[in-house]
From TrEMBL:
Residues 41-73 form the BBS2 GAE domain. InterPro entries: Bardet-Biedl_syndrome_2_prot, BBS2_GAE_dom, BBS2_hp_dom, BBS2_pf_dom. One of its GO terms (biological process) is non-motile cilium assembly. It comes from Aromia moschata. Residues 180-224 form the BBS2 hairpin domain. This is Uncharacterized protein. GO terms for cellular component: BBSome; ciliary basal body; membrane; motile cilium; neuron projection. Residues 80-168 form the BBS2 platform domain. It comes from the Eukaryota.
Length: 228
């Protein structure tokens, strides 16, 4: 049986799984423990529906529990390198760490079928797809220590950097970032803000002119009343 799990955010999640089997204890024994041994008469009950797997007509069950933590970026899956070009947005920085240790960070914070290992070559490139939004993420780790995250999401880039910096115990990190779509959106917002500001100033000027005309009309009306 497959149970799909959809994580709304990139945060670690604890998965608690229970498997039910046979347990040599009956409802009568449970009642005796609660009522006689513990001296409880009115006990609040909680209904917990479970899927039971066992022999037909079985009334005795074992309970086996296991806890597994899903890593922070479990919603990102590997995809072929030639499937799609890397996103335009990127953030680039440099760390003084071996690629083998960076692979340890990857294996701890991502959920891949097999562990990522670096054997040889000038760099390690991972092309990923977000199972939540369908967006692309490309991570390039060069042997010189230069790291580049290609993504259109600034928040994702920030989460990746914070996660890596925390794992590698890095306090300060210089980076270079470029997100054309975000910059374009910012430019559009600034243009709208300028238009609103111009409209506000024009409206303020019009209101001032109208008030001045009203004052002049009041003065003229007072003069005519005095003449009468």
């Amino acid at each position: 049986m497959l149970v799909p799990i959809f994580l709304p955010k990139d945060t670690p999640v604890d998965i608690h799984i229970k498997e039910l089997g046979t347990l040599d204890i009956t409802k009568t024994i449970v009642h005796e423990i609660v009522s006689e041994s513990l001296g409880m008469r009115k006990v609040c009950a909680k209904l917990v529906p479970k899927a039971l797997v066992g022999y037909p007509n079985s009334v005795q069950f074992h309970v086996f529990e296991i806890t597994r933590q899903l890593p922070q970026f479990a919603m990102y899956a590997l995809k072929p390198s030639n499937e799609q070009a890397a996103p335009e947005g990127f953030v680039r920085f440099k760390v003084n760490e071996r690629l083998q240790r960076i692979c340890m960070w990857i294996n701890q914070n991502f959920l891949f079928p097999t562990d990522i290992e670096f054997e040889s070559g000038p760099n390690l490139t991972l092309n990923l797809k977000c199972l939540r939004t369908g967006s692309s993420l490309a991570m390039v780790f060069e042997i010189s220590g230069k790291v580049t995250f290609h993504t259109t999401s600034m928040s994702l880039a920030a989460d990746l950097i914070q996660s890596m910096a925390s794992y590698l115990n890095i306090d300060t990190l210089e980076s270079k970032a470029s997100f054309p779509k975000e910059e374009e959106n910012l430019s559009l917002l600034m243009e709208k803000l300028n238009s609103i500001e111009e409209a506000r100033l024009k409206l303020g000027t019009d209101v001032a002119d109208q008030l001045e005309q009203i004052r002049n009309l009041i003065v003229m009306a007072e003069d005519r009343i005095c003449d009468l």
